[in-house]
Amino acid sequence: MGTLIALEGLDGAGKRTLVDKLVSELTSAGVRVAVRTFPRYGASIHADLAAEALKGAHGDLAGSVNAMAVLFALDRGGAVAELTELLERHDIVLLDRYVASNAAYGAARLRQGPDGEFVEWVRELEFERLGLPRPALQMLLDVPVELARARALAREASDSTRELDAYERDSDLQTRTGAVYRGLAQQEWVSSWKRIDPDVDPAALAADLAQWI
Ligand SMILES: Nc1ncnc2c1ncn2[C@@H]1O[C@H](COP(=O)(O)OP(=O)(O)OP(=O)(O)O)[C@@H](O)[C@H]1O
Ligand SMILES: Cc1cn([C@H]2C[C@H](O)[C@@H](COP(=O)(O)O)O2)c(=O)[nH]c1=O
């Protein structure tokens, strides 16, 4: 049975970039690694509806914190069988965002903290009702909000398909989300957490992750 590891962080933090480097390092070291990214755009109606809502579609859908979180949760709920199968065939299944994204962004929108009702609601909905596998390790790519924003803006300027959505445009939301994430990491929400610096060495981190197999 493989080890489930999730990478979390703000929009533009560099998660995708780091995941790609980790896969390259782990694969070179002979580790069987699979990657999945949430939301599953193009593969899940729930993910697509959420993305469209964050770009202004579907009336007042994006205005409801719980409705948005249910969409993200149902997207993941549809991936339970695939995750289970991937874990059977790989040493590590690395996730670019997972359940903690829902907890952190939703709590931040509601101005709640990591110990608040919303975080507990997400835990119960996703791990207990939807039966999502619990990650062995959750990593927080802890990039200052200004750096994450600069990276998201640079990406938007170079790629017309990556226009900032409502969450990305809201700098205060990103700041509060960062604070909730750090609280979740500090209290080891659901499983172990590891804080990752922006200048992390991917080779060293990959070697560390291989210890979790
Ligand atoms: N270490 C880095 N140094 C410089 N630029 C970086 C670094 N990591 C990522 N970037 C750049 O920052 C932008 C955002 O990176 P990336 O897409 O990996 O972030 P992300 O956390 O996956 O974002 P999102 O959650 O919004 O999809 C990209 O243009 C990427 O090339
Ligand atoms: C998976 C997930 C994501 N979010 C938030 C985080 C982002 O601001 C957007 C879209 O995600 P992307 O990585 O920029 O494509 O949605 C969330 O609130 N809950 C989730 O479960």
Keywords:
binds ligand LXEULUCI, 10 helices, alpha/beta, five-stranded parallel beta sheet, 213 residues, Rossmann fold, binds adenosine-5'-triphosphate, 5 strands
Describe, in plain words, how this protein is organized in 3D.
The structure is a single chain. With 213 residues, the protein is an alpha/beta fold. The chain has a single domain, classed as Rossmann fold (3-Layer(aba) Sandwich). 54% of the residues lie in helices and 12% in strands. The chain has ten helices and five strands. It has a five-stranded parallel sheet with strand order 2-3-1-4-5, sandwiched between helices. Helix 1 crosses helix 10. The longest helix has 16 residues. It is globular, with a radius of gyration of 16 Å. The mean pLDDT is 98.
| CATH fold-level name | Rossmann fold
User: What is the number of helices?
Assistant: 10
Q: Can you give the helix content as a percent range?
A: 40-55%
* Total strand segments: 5
Bound ligand species:
adenosine-5'-triphosphate, the ligand Cc1cn([C@H]2C[C@H](O)[C@@H](COP(=O)(O)O)O2)c(=O)[nH]c1=O
Give the averaged pLDDT, no decimals.
Answer: 98
Question: Which spans of ≥5 residues are poorly predicted at pLDDT below 50?
Answer: none
CATH superfamily: P-loop containing nucleotide triphosphate hydrolases
Beta-strand portion reads 5-15%
Helix-strand string: EHEHHHEHHEHHHEH
Q: How many structural domains can be distinguished in the coordinates?
A: 1
Euclidean distance between termini CA atoms: 9 Å
Summarize the model shown.
By secondary structure, this protein is an alpha/beta fold. It has 10 helices and 5 strands.
